[in-house]
Each structure stands twice: as structure tokens, then as C-alpha cells.
Amino acid sequence: MGKGYRQGRLGEEIRKIVSELLLRELKDPGLSAMISVTAVEVTSDGSYATVYLSVLSTSGAENEQEEQQKALDAMNRAKGFIRNEIGRQVKLRHTPELIFKIDHSMEYGRHISKIIRDLDIDHEDEE
Prior knowledge:
Oligomer: single chain
Helix content: 40-55%
Mean pLDDT: 82
Radius of gyration: 18 Å
Shape: globular
């Protein structure tokens, strides 16, 4: 088996737990936007886990940065509770320290799609 197999499994378990907590347990006013966990990367020694969040803004693009910051602040406030739940549900000697980051891949994908649309290239089948 490859080196990253254990980190991948642990990352997926953490993603499931954090997603479930966001859905059912965490009640914070900063989490008013729709938030999803897109990925979790665990370091090779298992001491840190970077949790990537996608925040879907409910009010539009003008408040998107503000809502993302509110979501990060709320997740950082709940970091201890989340880490405790991970430690309770996954039997580990050391529960990884959590680092929350915003996943910008959807914004990047929309940007690339816009660029492609703006090129306005006609697709013709050449035979």
C-alpha cells in the first residue's frame, strides 16, 4: 500500500465527522451561510489536518468575503469541540490539530469557465 493511504483514510473520516457536525451539532450565528467540507489533508505524521471549506454565499458576491471570514471565525471558535468529537469517534493516539481554510477551487473554476465563454470560439466539426 502507498504511503498516503492512512492519511487519506483519516482525512476522509475527519471530513465525514466535520460535515456531520456542521449539519447537526454546530449552532453558531457565523455559520448562517451554506458551508460544506470539500477536502481534508492530513500531514504524514498525523499532527495536523487542513480542512478546506466551501462557503456558498446567500446574499451575493459583495458580501462573499465577509461571509467566508465569518465562517472561518466560527469554525475556529468551535475547533476544540470538533477536535474532541474527532478524538471520540476515531480512535487515535493523538488527534490532529485542525487548520481551517477556504477552498477557492469553485471560484477558480467559474473564472476559467468565464474566460472560455468570453473567447467566443465557434465549435465546428471538421471532417
